[in-house]
Write a structure and sequence with these properties.
This protein has ten helices and twelve strands. By secondary structure, the chain is of the alpha/beta class. It has one domain: Alpha-Beta Barrel (TIM Barrel). Strands 7-8-9-6-5-4-3-2-1-10-11-12 form a twelve-stranded mixed beta sheet, with helices on one face. Helix 1 packs parallel to helix 2 and helix 1 packs across helix 9. The relative contact order is 0.16. The protein binds S-adenosylmethionine. S-adenosylmethionine binds next to strand 3, helix 7 and helix 10.
Length: 311
């Protein structure tokens, strides 16, 4: 359906947990024990059905870290079976991906985005608090083998922290059929609020002048390639090239609240309607109509990290 600003809202991001097995410095402190707010696979399915009635055709499962849920395959299989849902994708830090890749594919998962901000063991440990880089690479291999495609890596660079990792990350797109996407640091958590750390999309293009544009897809990333590259490099620039006018997203949080925009704390509780499908569909429609025109990061910062809101 179209929102108040004429944007076709077709993409639902579902945060299935606030828990995470990593503690990334730009994301917000995670608590890997708090389970009480998580929705069951059956409730997630009901909500996705109601979203699909309102024109949602793509769902991304995220968190927190979605693979800390041991019922993740059931979630994927229920969501992918909902009428009208054409694509189910997952965003993960990749630590448990080797274990799950094949089963996720069999459950109906189409593609996976893996967050990886460094290919260097000690920088990775500094950024995430965990010594698990090898597991992530194994996860990437298994996802490729399982046919989860397209395979994308998302990286957030910060000046003086991991900005010197850009070349190694770009090289992954050269040697493998992987899209490596750089996302500008957004103002979540203490580090995110430090604008001097942001590495902009333009700075990346200056560093790699051989990258040539190949356009965008149905999303915020602008893609680039170069001679001899198997994959592509993508730039997602929410800070320097705000793309809110073409935003097609709405978010379901792990406690069942609906969040129309990442940039605001506003989230609507609709759980009292969970057993009344008609009412649920109507409430979701009303909430989509309340989606703001833009994220407004330039005026204020949201009070929660992406681990709480779902990245
Ligand atoms: N645990 C999963 C993962 O690591 O991919 C999913 C959740 S995580 C919050 C989703 C994405 O949000 C990650 O790619 C992460 O890099 C990104 N992210 C978190 N905080 C961010 C920030 N301040 N600015 C830009 N991206 C951020």
């Amino acid at each position: 359906m179209k929102d108040n600003f004429g944007r076709e809202i077709s993409y639902l991001r579902v945060s299935v947990t606030q828990r995470c097995n990593l503690n990334c410095v730009y994301c917000g402190k995670s608590d890997c024990t708090k389970k009480e707010t998580e929705l069951s696979p059956a409730v997630i399915e009901k909500l996705v059905k109601a979203f699909a009635h309102n024109g949602i055709n793509k769902v991304r499962i995220t968190g927190g870290e979605p693979l800390v849920r041991n019922d993740i395959c059931e979630i994927i299989s229920r969501v992918s079976a909902v009428e009208g849902i054409k694509t189910v994708a997952l965003t993960t830090n990749g630590v448990y991906l080797a274990k799950y890749a094949k089963r996720l594919k069999e459950s109906g998962l189409d593609s996976v985005n893996i967050s990886l901000d460094s290919t260097d063991g000690s920088t990775y440990r500094h950024l995430t608090g965990a010594d698990v880089l090898e597991k992530v690479f194994k996860g990437i291999d298994e996802a490729e083998k399982a046919g989860l495609s397209p395979l994308k890596i998302n990286a957030v660079l910060m000046k003086g922290v991991n900005s010197d990792e850009a070349e190694e990350l770009v090289n992954l797109a050269k040697s493998r059929k992987i899209d490596v996407r750089f996302i500008e640091l957004m103002p979540f958590s203490e580090n995110g609020e430090n604008a001097s750390l942001i590495v902009t999309g333009n700075e990346i293009l200056e560093k790699f002048p051989f990258l040539t544009p190949v356009g965008s897809e149905n999303g915020p990333a602008e893609y680039y390639t170069a001679e001899g590259f198997t994959g592509r490099v993508g730039l997602i620039n929410p800070i320097t090239q705000k793309f809110c006018s073409s935003c097609n997203r709405i978010r379901l949080l792990s406690d069942g609240k609906i969040k129309p925009c990442l940039g605001y704390d506003t989230a609507y509780d609709i759980m009292q309607f969970i057993d009344d499908e008609a009412e649920l569909i109507e409430k979701i429609k009303e909430i989509i109509m309340r989606k703001p025109a833009g994220h407004g990061f330039e005026n204020k910062t949201p009070s929660h990290g992406l681990n709480r809101t779902g990245g």
